[in-house]
Amino acid sequence: MTRPEPGHFFIVDVFTTEPYQGNPLAVVFGRFGADDMLAIEREMNYSETVFVEDIPEAGPVPVRIFIPGTALPFAGQPKRCPAAVLRWEFGV
To answer: Are 77 and 14 in contact (CB under 8 A)?
Structure first.
């Protein structure tokens, strides 16, 4: 099974079926410190940036969600987007 390399990222257009419409969200793969995640979030400049740190063989995939300037403990669409990327791009 192919897995994303650390540092790879995807831009996902949520709430639309058309490219470059809807609400863009970044899904970033890899383990980063909190300061680096905030810096990446600022660079992406989207309303949400989601970090996927590890992909276990089974069970839930842990994610960290950032909005401008802070982390969020939970949000619905940012939890679903990494799952969609993993499914569509990597068959996970």
So the answer is: yes
| Angle in degrees, CA 33, 39, 43, rounded to 5 | 140
State how far the Cα of 73 lies from the Cα of 35, in Å rounded to an integer. Answer: 17
Give the residue carrying structure tokens 């793969």: 29
- Rounded CA-CA distance 32/8 in Å is 12
C-alpha distance across the termini of the chain, in Å: 7
What 3-state DSSP class applies to 71? strand
66 touches 43 (CB < 8 A): no
pLDDT along the chain (92 residues), means of 10: 82 89 92 93 93 86 89 81 85 76
Say what the pTM is. 0.87
Residues known to be catalytic: 48
What is d(CA 79, CA 65) in angstroms, rounded to the nearest whole number?
8
